[in-house]
């Protein structure tokens, strides 16, 4: 049984430590998010975004203009790292915004950043290869991969086509390019936020989710031109592979939590991608 009072006491202690760290006169409130580690700090007209244990390469992301400006970083005695970023007044993008050329160009800039890749490698992160991803899916899917025909078929297809999606091209992938993680400031600056799940991987990992979820297929070529690559049969197959993998992961995740609406959405996408790859294969 979860001890909710202990969780609340722990969070209160963290907030008190943060208040002591940033100084008197600041008001803290939760900024939302899955981790509960992000806060908005306000003092008069000043406003900053505070986060505990953010991405270790936040400084590089800030320097390249990919995230809002990093103001300071402080390490606590506990080893936790607290970061403060400039608060951006703006809005999250909607699904219909994702066909903007600026999104394609910014994602292309991220994937081509040698500084980001070098920083990630210095931290000892190993590439998320197709083999590693498939092994993880086998563990996550459990009995579902035998009981659900669509998941069974998709898992078999991933294994059968593993040799065709190996690549020497590894980049820093955000790994969650959902429209909610893209924001536009009042000054019309575009940012991609929430880098906690980033990986070194095939760029098709990010491209598959963005294109399959938001861009009509007849516009993929134009979008990828702005991103900086040519749409080829090889890229289509890699994107299909990663989209199937991400769909299985989402079906398992939402199914295990009985989140019916999300489970149904991802299961429909899983079958849609399966149908497309089967048509192309035949």
Automatic annotation (TrEMBL):
UniProt entry keywords in alphabetical sequence: Transferase
Top-level division of the source organism's lineage: Bacteria
Entries under InterPro entries matching the protein: Aminoglycoside_PTrfase (IPR002575), CcrZ_PhaseVar_Mediator (IPR052077), Kinase-like_dom_sf (IPR011009)
One of the record's GO molecular function terms: transferase activity
Pfam families: APH
Domain Aminoglycoside phosphotransferase intervals: 57-232
PANTHER family cross-referenced by the UniProt entry: CELL CYCLE REGULATOR CCRZ, PHOSPHOTRANSFERASE YTMP-RELATED
Protein name in the entry: Phosphotransferase
């Amino acid at each position: 049984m979860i001890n909710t009072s202990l969780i609340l006491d722990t969070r209160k202690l963290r907030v008190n430590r943060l208040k002591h760290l940033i100084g008197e006169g600041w008001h803290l409130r939760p900024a939302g998010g899955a981790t509960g580690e992000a806060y908005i700090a306000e003092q008069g007209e000043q406003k900053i975004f505070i986060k505990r244990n953010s991405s270790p390469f936040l400084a590089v992301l800030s320097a390249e203009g990919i995230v809002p400006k990093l103001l300071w970083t402080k390490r606590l005695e506990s080893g936790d790292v607290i970061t403060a970023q400039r608060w951006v007044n703006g809005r999250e993008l909607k699904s219909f915004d994702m066909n903007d050329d600026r999104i394609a160009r910014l994602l292309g800039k991220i994937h081509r950043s040698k500084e980001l890749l070098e920083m990630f490698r210095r931290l000892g992160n190993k590439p998320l290869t197709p083999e590693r991803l498939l092994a993880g899916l086998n563990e996550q899917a459990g009995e579902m991969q035998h009981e659900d025909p669509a998941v069974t078929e998709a898992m078999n297809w991933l294994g059968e086509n593993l040799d065709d999606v190996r690549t020497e091209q590894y980049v820093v992938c955000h790994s969650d390019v959902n429209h909610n993680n893209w924001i536009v400031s009042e000054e019309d600056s575009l940012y991609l936020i929430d880098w906690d799940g980033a990986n070194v991987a095939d760029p098709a990992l990010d491209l598959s989710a963005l294109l399959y979820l938001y861009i009509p297929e007849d516009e993929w070529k134009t979008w990828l031109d702005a991103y900086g690559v040519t749409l080829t049969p090889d890229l289509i197959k890699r994107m299909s592979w990663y989209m199937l993998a991400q769909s299985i992961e989402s079906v398992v995740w939402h199914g295990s939590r009985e989140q019916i609406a999300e489970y149904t959405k991802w299961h429909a996408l899983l079958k849609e991608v399966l149908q497309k790859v089967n048509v192309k294969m035949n």
